Amino acid sequence: MADETDVLNDAWDYKGRPAKRSTTGGWLSAASILGVELVERLTTLGIAVNLVTYLTNTMHLRSAYAANSVTNFLGTSFMLCLLGGFIADSFLGRYRTIAIFAAVQALGVTLLTISTVIPALRPPPCNEGGRCVPASTLQLSMLFLALYLTALGTGGLKSSVSGFGSDQFDESVANEKAQMMRFFQWFFFFITLGALGAVTVLVYIQDNIGRRWGYGTCVCAMVVALAVYLSGTRRYRFKKLASSPLTQIARVLFASWKNRHLELPLDPMALCQENFSEMKKPRFIHTKQFRFLDKAAILEPNLGLPERPTNPWKQCSLMDVEEVKMVIKMLPIWATTIMFWTVYAQMTTFSVQQAMTMRRHIVGGFSIPSASLTLFFVVSILLIVPLYDRVIRPLSRRITGHPQGFSPLQRIACGLILSVLAMVAAALTEIKRVHAAHPSSSVVPLSVFWLVPQFVLVGVGEALTYVGQLDFFLKECPQGMKSMSTGMFLSTLSLGFFFSSILVSVVDKLTTHGSSGGGWIADDLNKGRLYDFYWLLGILSFLNLGVFFFCARGYVYNDARMAEEDEMKCLDNMHEEL
Q1: Domain identity same for 154 and 253
Q2: Residue 237 shares a structural domain with residue 118
Q3: Average of pLDDT values for 482-511?
Q4: Same domain, yes or no, for 5 and 64?
Q5: Residue 431 counted as domain residue
Q6: What is the pLDDT of residue 536?
Q7: End-of-domain residue from the set 242, 272, 290
Q8: Domain of 524, in residue numbers
């Protein structure tokens, strides 16, 4: 007879039987999943950080167009995480989603490799007179097909990796819960490891051996990672599909609009309630904000007081309504973090183009690849994480009283402040670079290490903002909508990249019109005024910081709201007893 403690009640094996602790899940399964994430980061970042040089030097595209192509590629990758999460939650499950979209990403990178191998898919090199023929429509179509297939694969894969990895551990058991927490630490480590390999080894291969070899390496790595992932199928733990949080939000909005003409009862208990004994959902506080959404929970006439809604598209539970309200309250914080990623986008585009024009030779005649300056992102993260844990958190805890030193919103604020300083440093460095440029030389006699401050400031800011956002969305997102928290976080990255594209297009159009020098964002940066664009980003970031402070000051954490409610109930009970 099988040991009942060895059988899991909420997980199944690959044959649909209740999963056993002894034969499924654990670190062996998690390691196969982490390998896929490492290769995804290696591939996506390896393409993105060096893409602007390929678009300008090989495809002969304008600087502004090339920069927008990079940010649109990254923005689409992160935005498609929402689609991937919806598909995983509602239709395919996380296992199939990862397998299918990993194959899609491998296909995209394969097409990208082919586009660098076949001469007809690239424009001819510039002639001796410096005349360059831009890529044709057919050549760009092939390139963008490959890029956006890669982005589709990235979005679908990335949406499910962390969730499926955590599914391999049982949170109800103390030792497995501790292992799951360590899994998230290793997850972040593998992301950083993939990024490190992308900005060093992969960029070096692309610049010194050939693009075809760099992209081909990514294809081989993805095929191997996918094979290892599929080989672990017998050991994985699978969870049942859950309804997508996006569906819940749509239901509440639709039902509240449909019932907009109905009168709300004065007593919230007259609204549709849930059967908590079966659903096992956490308690919640009925709030008076956004009361129009309460209309989604108005009971249908002549049906009495059902424990659950009869039709969720006509009548939602009060619990579902309150969860949607919690998401709406988070939106101002969500919106004011987008600007940070707009600043971040410049480090993968114009900062790389700046590095291309500067002196990059170091000891022994070795030339640093321009895209490898993003290494300072990775180094900054690797340094700030232990520094925060060992030094900053103990010191700040004495000042703020918060167990983590700084609260999630305070960490985000620090990241936003650093983004403003980064744009000031970038503008000052660009002014120095332009003044040092000589018309007769394509190389500016200025060391590329002058760009390090802006990379470090954005890198440290990324570590603080990334962790702060992730912590904020995980803790403040409703319990029933936890799978959406990562999607909300990643959507700020996506919109930040898209906003960068819009901003670059607008600035390029306004400053180029009627200008003989090519405007702020000229193809020849030495003839442009990129520093003015950096000043503009600095001003916008500063204004955004002010809006963030205003929104953050009025935000009340869920734990604080619950504690306040408990205190009020305690006082009411005391008054009743008196």
Answers
A1: no
A2: yes
A3: 86
A4: yes
A5: yes
A6: 96
A7: 242
A8: 337-578
Phi/psi-derived region of residue 358, left when phi > 0, alpha when psi is between -120 and 50, beta in every other case? beta
Q: Is 407 left (phi over 0), alpha (psi -120 to 50) or beta?
A: beta
Q: What is each CA distance from 451 to 196, 355, 417, 422, in whole angstroms?
A: 19, 8, 19, 10
Based on the fold, state whether residues 483 and 533 are members of the same structural domain: yes
Which among 242, 273, 290 is the end of a domain?
242
325 within some domain: no
Cβ 349 vs Cβ 52: under 8 Å:
yes
**What's the rounded mean pLDDT across residues 405-426?**
92
Cβ-contact 373, 200 below 8 angstroms: no
Same domain, 425 and 454: yes
Number of domains in the chain: 3
Residue 214 within any structural domain of the chain: yes
Beta bridge partner(s), residue 12 = 18, 238
Average pLDDT, the chain: 84
| Residues 365-386: tens digit of each pLDDT | 677 888 788 888 778 877 887 7
> Of the given ranges (93-97, 487-491, 511-515), which has the lowest mean pLDDT?
511-515
Residues 381 and 505 placed together within one structural domain of the fold = yes
440 in Cβ contact with 558 (< 8 Å): no
Domain assignment present for 474? yes
According to the model, what pLDDT value does residue 280 have? 44
22, burial (CB in 10 Å: exposed 0-12, middle 13-18, buried 19+): exposed
pLDDT, position 304: 47
Q: Is the pLDDT of residue 577 over 70?
A: no
470-474-479 Cα angle (round to 5): 165
* Beta strands at 358-359 and 444-447: parallel, antiparallel or unpaired: parallel
Cβ partners under 8 Å of residue 232, min gap 6: 28, 29, 32, 33
Same domain, 557 and 578: yes
What tokens appear for 233 in the block? Answer: 């199928």
Percent of residues, the chain, with pLDDT higher than 70 = 87
Is-contact 530 520, C-beta < 8 A?
Answer: yes
Write the CATH number for 232. 1.20.1250.20
- 3-class state of residue 457 by DSSP: helix
- Whether residue 217 contacts residue 58, with contact meaning beta carbons closer than 8 Å, is answered with no
Q: Is 360 found in the same domain as 270?
A: no
Sign of the C-alpha dihedral, residues 481, 482, 488, 490?
negative
- Distance between CA atoms of 322 and 119, rounded to whole angstroms? 58
- Can you give the pLDDT at residue 192? 82
Could you give phi then psi for residue 163, rounded to 5 degrees?
-65, -45
Burial class of 50 by CB neighbour count within 10 A (0 to 12, 13 to 18, 19+): buried
